[in-house]
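# nightly structure sweep
# worker-07 picked up a monomer target from the shared queue
# config: single-sequence mode, recycle default, output format = structure tokens
# input follows
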Amino acid sequence: MAEERRRGWLWLALSGFLGLGCILCLNWKNIRAHSPPTTTIAIALVCMVGLVLVDRRIIPRMDFLDKRENDAIRGAEAEEAVGAVLDQLPADYMVLHDVPGPCGNIDHVVLRKDGAVFVIETKSMAGQVSERNGRLLINGYPSQKDFVGQTLRNAFRVREVLAAELGVERWVDSAIIFTKACVSVCEIKRVRVMNVCSLKQWMARTPGKREIERRAAMKWEKLRSVLQNGNCLEVAGEGGRNVDGL
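# output follows
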């Protein structure tokens, strides 16, 4: 993602400055050819308009793409930090990264052989994470995106995959993990919110689900394949189901 945004930034910069260069070159040739003053003035006005467009349109767009590139890099670093913790889990855990989901990839999906299922989203924001009236706050302000809703939708999709494969619908434990923030909220709408250092302890305390354990025992690798290949996109749509009812 960061590479795509960097390429967009570079193409935008190159296009803008090449355009200005062409206009300036034409103006210089016009002056050297001793063209009429009206032509020189017209080309000079075109140059001024081009400079205004660069200042008002291209440069702000470049700044936006640069910020988005940095956001993507920080997000990737956060996913890697959480992924490193999950990869150290015992062999009875199945850990999947970047699982195709309904609205982009799900950062991490973890299945434990005793039937516990986890959907984990990672965030790279720094500062203080808190809650007010059921809303997640970053440094006292509502988050730009609905992280809780995103996590619930992903948990709903994973639950639908398990229902399709195992014939049983059970609660999928979900969490939002902040890698650089101080977290003072524990849970919002049944989604756990925590720092990365609390992740393994939370997962260890989460009880298994016997019915999933029994039915998944013979389909362990099938579930891995289904989730990794993006079959969660093929399950039934939301169909009016309320994610709060997970």
